[in-house]
Design goal:
Layout lengths: L2 H15 L10 E6 L5 H15 L4 E5 L4 E4 L2 E2 L14 H9 L2 E8 L9 E14 L34 E7 L1 H18 L28
Antiparallel strand pairs: 1-6, 2-3, 3-5, 4-5, 5-6, 6-7
Helix pairs in contact: 1-3, 2-4
Length: 218
C-alpha cells in the first residue's frame, strides 16, 4: 500500500473514532417482584455474582442501603475480542484510541415494610486517562507511548504515575442495560417461588378415592 493509502486508512480510523456517540437507551432500571422473604436475598446474591462474572472486583457492598460499586476496569481495545465491556462502535473506538475505564454502580434498596417489590438500577461510569504528552525521538518510541520511559514534552525530568489522571466522561447507558439483563437472568433462576398458603391445596396430593360399601350376607 502506498503512503497515501496508509494515510487515508489512518484518517478513516480517526474519523470513525471521533464520531458523536449515538443517543443511549433509557436508564437501566427494572422493578423486580419479591414473592417471598428470601427473594431479596437471592436478588442480592445475583447482583454480586453477575458483576464478578463480568470481570469486576467489588469495591463497596452496602447491604443496609442496598448499594454495590466495583473497582474500575480498563475497557477493551480493538484486538481484545474475547472481552465484552463495550456495546457500541463509538465506545469501541473511544476505548481503542484513548484508555477508558469503567466501573459499575448498582442500587437495590430493601423493600419497605409490607412491600413485595424493589427497584433495581444499574449505572456504568466512564473515565478517560489524561496523561502528560511524551517526546518522540525515534520510531520505536511509539510502543512506549503509555509507559514512563519517554521524557515529557514540558520537561521536568522523568514521568511518574502520579502525573496521570482519570477524568469522568459520562455514563455508558448501553452497557448498563447489558449488565441489568445479566443480573435479571441470573436472578430468574435463583428467586424462590411464592409461598403456598395453608388453605390452598397442593398440586402433588391426589384426592382420596371413596371407600366401597361393605357387602351384607342375606
Amino acid at each position: 500500500m502506498s503512503a497515501k493509502g496508509v494515510t487515508g486508512a489512518l484518517m478513516a480510523v480517526v474519523l470513525c473514532g471521533c464520531q458523536r456517540p449515538l443517543a443511549g437507551p433509557s436508564p437501566a432500571v427494572s422493578t423486580v417482584e419479591l414473592p417471598s422473604a428470601e427473594s431479596y436475598d437471592a436478588l442480592w446474591v445475583a447482583v454480586r455474582e453477575s458483576l464478578r462474572d463480568e470481570g469486576f472486583r467489588l469495591a463497596l457492598v452496602d447491604r443496609f442501603n442496598g448499594r454495590v460499586t466495583t473497582e474500575p476496569v480498563v475497557s477493551q481495545h480493538f484486538f481484545e475480542f474475547w472481552r465484552r465491556d463495550v456495546a457500541t462502535p463509538a465506545d469501541w473506538w473511544q476505548a481503542t484510541l484513548n484508555p477508558i475505564r469503567r466501573r459499575v454502580e448498582v442500587l437495590l434498596p430493601p423493600p419497605a415494610d409490607g412491600a413485595h417489590a424493589t427497584e433495581l438500577q444499574v449505572a456504568v461510569r466512564k473515565e478517560r486517562l489524561s496523561s502528560p504528552e511524551r517526546q518522540f525521538n525515534e520510531s520505536g518510541a511509539f510502543f512506549q507511548f503509555f509507559g514512563y520511559a519517554l521524557p515529557p514534552v514540558a520537561g521536568g525530568g522523568e514521568l511518574q504515575p502520579e502525573a496521570d489522571r482519570w477524568i469522568p466522561v459520562g455514563e455508558d447507558a448501553a452497557m448498563a442495560q447489558v449488565y441489568l439483563a445479566a443480573i435479571l437472568k441470573r436472578a430468574a433462576g435463583a428467586l424462590p417461588p411464592p409461598a403456598v398458603g395453608e388453605d390452598q391445596p397442593t398440586t402433588d396430593t391426589e384426592p382420596a378415592e371413596p371407600a366401597e360399601p361393605a357387602e351384607i350376607d342375606p
